[in-house]
User: Which sequence fits this backbone?
């Protein structure tokens, strides 16, 4: 029987405690739930997926270094010690701020406070059809799709009898020179130059061309120029062709037209842009250009003082007027801030809260073996030092001890041997070598 | 460029060395390739999948204890030190024994010796439509489908508001009381009783009903009666309802009719039968009732002295006339025997080989924590001793060191905590909660 015979729609009415609904179990949603510990409220986390995913390491799954389960855990596992938190694998379909209800497939859920943390998804700048030909990297499923296409191209090259087709199969295009594009390009270069060669007999994986396309004047535009230049040098040494000032005009199956030139490819990956998940219309507000919801300095939605928007979905400005960047760190900070604000309001504090202030925790991107860039305030690290810093930080932030150990072990093993242990191609999800039947699923995180 | 400008169809003609084609990279195919080391021949392994899978542990992936990549490795990785072995991710479509060619999508491949090791797949006894409603467990993809359906049923129960629907969601039916069915039922019982309860708030996973249906008079019919009885007792203690003499009449979405009674379920799994992969018609021979090819005592196909059939696909009798069982151990033994036979023929030995003799290496099945049964000749083990024996044997046989370590670590961790670390639900492959759009892919191993 259902425990205490409670029902989805009645339970919170039975209890007199305030109800807080969190939509989205990503960094922001989890941080909010954690900050609400001891609040006395009942907390409900809704997510269409059963798992929280450590997105900064997705590119390692996409290139076969880590297993999906090394970087993803059931949300309810993360929250297992919190009797006040209920996790429901349900997608929010709509919000009614006037009646204070969230609509799901299984009925309406009332709230006293609502935290919307549905994150962002790929943006193809209006060309949604490109998604099929150039999958992006936002979810575990995306990573499996990319891994499948990448490895399958090498497999097909091994069986290939036509030299032109062979070269095409071994051409990989990454669109977008931000951190994800750089990390993906670097990892693919390592797979091609180091991991695979000893295992192929007819094809030579070192023949792979890895092309990174960036529309702007330099890669990693959010980093200081010195670090961009360093990254460019390292990538070039690794054999990645970096083409800046090269805007993509068309993406079709196995072909990209950029700067008026066509390039044929064995696989194409998208790292060029994200847009907020479509939550703005739930609240009847207009999102900004990328769909983000402009929030007040206390992260509430104007006119809806009980609705908070946090993470990638929130548009809020720093003291200097620049928008807070869409990072894991800022998402966590917003979640934590919101949890604490609500806790204060529940205690009856009347004073308006201090406005949200983003604290720069630095930004990091790894390029390859022994090479990463780190910007932390005025500190700029590159090379081995940056890479060690990056490794320690990432292992540290992985949620549970077991994964930390496994990931650390996988990395040590991979470092010593260049081996990547998670290189299986799954039949279904990539389904989809070239003539993908179905778009890769998009996340709402 | 293609190394040495060799082409798929020409390479083996250029080389004067004999060509051995192995179809299938399962236990039998890999063992054959390993036994052919130093033969001087050129060996080609064809498989539609890129990976070799350690099938005996698939049920652990299906129940969230291990990651897919803990038990599967690229075939070319397994063969990485063998310069004489080329692995092509290509499915064999036909064999022409008169012209000694294998047909693939990418052209014909000539052979001097052919080893067919395409294994077996699920048998639904003529009811192929049941596959959609009751997936079986033969491949990594199957395991992901089963894991998704199992975990999703608990997720849906947590959000469920209707008591009847709740009980239905938490009813799991396993059809078939052989080793796979028993292992699956035992593992599902542990997931429901031990792993999940602390993480659910509305549903109580301990409410799960786990029903194991067996058409015959007892479970584990291939084991001595004493061990069957022991397994039955342990399963019953774990809360598994075992129903013998219960033949399944119909399987529909979320419902099974067996022994004239209908049972509704949140998920249904198939462990009732296997049939050989459809290779018999390639050779123009009639398979036996389950599609196996009857081979001569030296494992060659009558009238095709250069074609060997090994593993689950081969029907060959033991000295006492009983057919050799379809096990990993027998597949490996047949592969090894065949590799050695061909090596001898390549050296020009004229003497007919000793006939293949199956050596019983024992059979093992685990039922749950601290409980396994082992039959090894006259030795019969149960309980903790059996379970320890089972654990050591399985970890030992896992192919590579890294996986051995990881699997051992995962088990130790799971044993101590009941935690199962690989419990993510993937969006695509299970695609497929109840209204599956597509049959789970079947393997050819």
Assistant:
């Amino acid at each position: 029987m259902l425990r205490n015979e409670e029902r989805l729609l009645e339970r919170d009415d039975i209890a007199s405690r305030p109800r807080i609904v969190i939509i989205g179990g990503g960094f922001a949603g989890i941080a909010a739930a954690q900050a609400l510990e001891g609040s006395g409220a009942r907390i409900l986390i809704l997510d269409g997926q059963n798992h929280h995913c450590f997105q900064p390491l997705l590119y390692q799954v996409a290139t076969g270094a880590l297993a999906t389960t090394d970087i993803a855990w059931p949300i309810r596992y993360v929250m297992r010690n919190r009797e006040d938190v209920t996790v429901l694998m349900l997608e929010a379909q709509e919000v009614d701020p006037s009646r204070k209800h969230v609509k799901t497939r299984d009925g309406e859920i009332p709230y006293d406070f609502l935290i919307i943390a549905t994150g962002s998804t790929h943006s193809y700048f209006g060309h949604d059809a490109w998604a099929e030909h150039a999958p992006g990297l936002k979810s575990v499923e995306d990573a499996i799709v990319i891994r499948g296409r990448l490895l399958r191209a090498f497999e097909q090259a091994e069986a290939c009898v036509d030299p032109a087709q062979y070269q095409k199969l071994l051409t990989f295009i990454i669109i977008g020179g931000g951190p994800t594009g750089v990390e993906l390009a670097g990892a693919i270069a390592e797979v091609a130059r180091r991991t695979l060669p000893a295992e192929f007999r007819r094809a030579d994986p070192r023949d792979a061309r890895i092309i990174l396309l960036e529309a702007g004047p330099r890669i990693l535009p959010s980093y200081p120029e010195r670090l961009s230049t360093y990254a460019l040098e390292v990538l070039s040494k690794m054999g990645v062709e970096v083409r800046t000032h090269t805007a993509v005009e068309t993406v079709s199956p196995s072909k990209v037209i950029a700067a008026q030139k066509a390039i044929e490819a064995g696989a194409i990956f998208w790292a060029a842009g994200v847009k907020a998940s479509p939550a703005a219309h739930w609240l009847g507000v207009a999102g900004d250009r990328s769909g983000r919801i402009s929030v007040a300095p206390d992260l509430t939605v104007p006119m809806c003082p009980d609705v908070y928007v946090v993470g990638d979905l929130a548009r809020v400005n720093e003291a200097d007027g620049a928008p807070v960047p869409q990072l894991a760190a800022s998402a966590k900070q917003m979640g934590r801030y919101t949890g604490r604000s609500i806790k204060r309001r529940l205690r009856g504090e009347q004073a308006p809260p201090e406005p949200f202030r983003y604290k720069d925790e630095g930004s990091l991107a790894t390029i390859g073996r022994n090479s990463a860039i780190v910007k932390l305030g005025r500190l700029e690290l590159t090379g081995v030092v940056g890479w060690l810093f990056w490794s320690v930080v990432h292992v540290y932030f992985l949620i549970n001890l077991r994964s930390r150990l496994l990931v650390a072990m996988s990395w040590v093993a991979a470092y010593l041997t260049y081996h990547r242990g998670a290189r299986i191609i799954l039949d279904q999800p990539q389904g989809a070598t070239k003539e993908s039947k179905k778009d890769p699923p998009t996340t709402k995180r």
Summary: DSSP finds twelve helices and 25 strands in chain B. The first helix of chain B runs from residue 11 to 14. The longest strand of chain B covers residues 304-309.
